[in-house]
Design brief:
134 residues, alpha/beta, Nucleotidyltransferase, domain 5, 5-stranded mixed beta sheet, 4 helices, 5 strands, elongated
Length: 134
């Protein structure tokens, strides 16, 4: 049975809310994306003295691959989709939308919008999805 789906997503987790026939179901997908805390850059007391270079290029490349795996896990967790909305507090929703447009065109065609929303309780998330599809 086709359903209306809302995906609340950030880099830590995604909550998939399915709304159909007056009932809602929620499923959580945890992310395995590493958080970045730069280390290095040990300085000297001399202005402009030697310093370690922080290698964030490696981290960004690793994060890209981890996000792709995370998005694939979220996408494979979806039930049959009638219409879809992505929302959340960060740019992760935009990145998921981009992944859908590049590699999952069937789902991208069912995407109704990508919205910015703050962190909310589970009941608020369900209400948000219900109100969006009214």
């Amino acid at each position: 049975m086709a359903t209306k789906i809302g995906i609340w997503i950030d880099k830590r987790s995604a909550k998939i809310i399915s709304a159909e026939n007056g009932g809602e179901l929620m499923k959580t997908v945890k992310s395995k994306v590493e958080e970045y805390h730069p280390k290095g850059g040990s300085g000297t007391k001399m202005k402009g003295g030697p310093q370690d270079v922080v290698q964030d290029g490696k981290f960004l490349e690793r994060e890209t691959h981890q996000l792709k795996a995370y998005f694939n896990e979220v996408i494979t967790s979806l039930p049959v989709v009638e219409s879809l909305v992505i929302f959340g507090p960060s740019q992760t929703g935009q990145k998921l939308s981009s992944e859908l447009s590049n590699h999952h065109k069937d789902l991208y065609g069912k995407l109704k919008g990508v919205e910015t929303a703050d962190s909310q309780t589970n009941n608020q998330l369900i209400a948000w999805v219900r109100d969006y599809f009214k």
